[in-house]
Amino acid sequence: MIKTKNLYFKYEEDIILKNISIEIKEGSFTAIIGANGSGKTTLAKHFNALLMPAKGEVLVGGTSTKKDELNARKKVGFVFQNFEDQLVYPVVEEDIAFGLENMELGNEEIKKSVDEILKELNITHLAKRNVNTLSMGQKQLIALAGVLAMKPKCIVFDEPTTNLDEKNKKSIMGMIRSLNKKYRMTIILITNVLNDLRYADEIVVLKNGIVIFSDKKSKLESSVLKEARLYD
């Protein structure tokens, strides 16, 4: 699904990611975990061509993001930690349609897709609401709906539980797990919360922009988490 080969990325003169070679398998639930500042989100933004490597390459479905950014953005959706930044239009159904409009689909096809995703997420009753009147949990669902409407093969969730209370945390993680188990969608979860690892099959651990572990969860040892400063 996604491969990085000897990926380097730098911001000005600072090297943020160093020689990263990993593979995200199609249909997997992969957690990328590391302490704050380890490079997790920077790495994830390469998966849908929001960022480009300084050296090395990222392949999405076998195609380099350097050669075809649009391919990556169609196949890999991204739900940001600050998901409110993804809400563009004031009315819910219009906001969900935004990405589809950019794909230049017809009005009837857009309406059908929006109606389907509203129903799927059980938020049809919010269709005409102003997004500014919604709760944090509802806003996150709208951001997710906008991504799902474009039918990506993979979705990256960047620390999706950070701004939510316990009830909404449980709800959104249950929904993410369902996308993976029920629909076999590839899920990439960016997190610094050890408890989130229980949802994942594959784990990537970052420390200071370097991968120190990339394998099945069953092979992850506490010493790796300690090295990554994820244990007190």
Shape: globular
Which second-level CATH architecture applies? 3-Layer(aba) Sandwich
Nearest-integer average pLDDT? 93
CATH classification, class level: Alpha Beta
User: How far apart are the first and last residues' alpha carbons, in Å?
Assistant: 34 Å
Q: How many strand elements? A: 10
> How is the CATH topology named?
Rossmann fold
Rg, Å, rounded: 18 Å
Main sheet specs: 6 strands, mixed
Q: What share of residues is helical? A: 25-40%
The string of secondary-structure elements, in order, is EEEHEEHEHHHEHEEEH
Q: Which sequence of strands runs across the widest sheet?
A: 6-7-8-3-9-10
Structural domain tally? 1
CATH H-level superfamily: P-loop containing nucleotide triphosphate hydrolases
- The poorly predicted ranges are none
Structural class: alpha/beta
Number of helical stretches of at least 4 residues: 7
The proportion of residues in beta strands is 25-35%
